[in-house]
Amino acid sequence: MQTPDDKRLIGRRPLLGGLAAAAALAPTGAPAAPMTPSQEQLGSLLQVATRAQLAALDGSPGQAALLTEPGRQGFFVLREGAAPGQDPLQGLTIPSERGSRHWARMWDGSHGMPEWFGARANDRSAAATNRAAIEACIALCPITQLAQAEYLIADTLRVSISNRTLRGTNFSAEPPYNGGTRVVCTDPRRDVIRVGGTPNAIPSIIHLEALTACWSVDLVPPPTGREAEAPAAFRVEHVLTSRLERCFALDPLIGFWFNGAINTRCIGYGVTRFKGYRGGGRDFVRGVWVRGKPRRFAGGNASLYLMDGNVSTSEAMRAAFYMPMGIYADADFADLYILGLETFQIAFPITLDGAGGDFSGGHGDVHIRSLVIDQIIGDGITIRNTNPLAKIQIDGGYIQIVDSRQDNKGLWLENGGGAITVSNLQITGEDSSSTSIGIYAKNRANVAISDSVIVENIAFPVRVERGCARLSLGCTVNGGVMRSRGHAAIAVDGASQSVLRPKLTGNPGAFTAGVELLGSVHDRVSIDPTMVDPMTVPSGRKVVINGKAVTASGHYSGNGDRAPEGAGVMVSGVVG
């Protein structure tokens, strides 16, 4: 099986006595048919130490020569015709001084190394020239293979040509993060790697693999409110069909930025912040920023898949950042898939905020699945300001609230239209504050929550404020070991046309009530407390309406009094 290291050694193996399959570059710049020196040619093989010596060699067309110049070493063959003009750094072709001829590198026609074009790995003095060498390799080689080393660059490395792959040799996801391929920018105000072109020149099919992007100097946070001006480790913009696999951002302000991208898959990505930055605005973290304004396509990005990612900070730094976010999508964010995200010590793991969006369907087809959100001191999933055509699904995951930040929420849904469905989600508190909230909804209609579990130490398991019409609530609340008691498990203020059918278990007297309705706006609300364990609430308080306990099935008015059929609240299943 061929490994990335094997691919890098094409062109070096001849030095060890074996010739790799090779192809020479034709005068037009297109790869020619594979060519291997004959035994006669090998017998008279010439060897030179520099490109200048190779250019000065005299020979007949077809003559092979071995260049041993460090980094550029490899076999070359003499060809008729002038050297192609698109290789000024002489990575694949070297003009001959003996008439209209050139020496063409013998290679496989696919895998190239930036060292052929003058790049020098692990050399801090090469930062001014490495970017040009890597980009020259990308321009002429379908696959650019980097070493397991560090490449310093003084400016953003751009991958803007269709059908190109930039591949590292290894991926390092554990400290000290130096075991793989690292692309390191020396300018604190520049992106490290940018994928894509311009709005008028959009390349397609670009792949990045096994790369760590970082900076050699401390970054400078922009002024508060201008976070979008910060540099990104990976900026993906104006590209069709790109794939980033096992790419890692180390100590960024923004790890991955997406805008104007179509059919993008970011797989096995990682973002970690250990250090803090001073100067400029407040230090912040955006692991992934799905930028929806200016809008490109249906929702800023069309068909963006963020799969199996990890965003984390050190425990010592987690409270130092301003609004640290794992994944942040703003304005328009249609066709977004967040699958298998894991965060650690990130206060706001997922935030979707549609404020400022300008497309009527810009919040549709958003799927969030299979999460592990660990040790948050903020709000686990926040969804705000969606438009009427929004369709958002949350399915499966774990959210752990810790520490003592007031009013931290596992799931926060506020403002906007459309529909949100939530299922198979576990929200748990561990030493969380006395004001922590499991699920919070306000001015957010058309929410359906089913088979979701809230366990241990959540002071307010479910809080629903006004403006939450057509709420379907069928979650399980478990009142286990709790820091704070004295609250209802489900507290609802003004949810018309809603069905409340929770399951409630836990320690005796964990909650003051099962379902408590507050306020007067309770038009056509159906409550079924059949699955409320009577041990968890005081006797007769499975359902409470504005302070009055409901002890019998039937219709009730907003103040808790019995009412004729057709009144605002219908209670069923009350026994004891």
Automatic annotation (TrEMBL):
Residues 1-32 form the signal peptide. InterPro entries: Pectin_lyase_fold/virulence (IPR011050), TAT_signal (IPR006311). Keywords: Signal. It comes from Novosphingobium chloroacetimidivorans. This is Right-handed parallel beta-helix repeat-containing protein. PROSITE patterns: TAT.
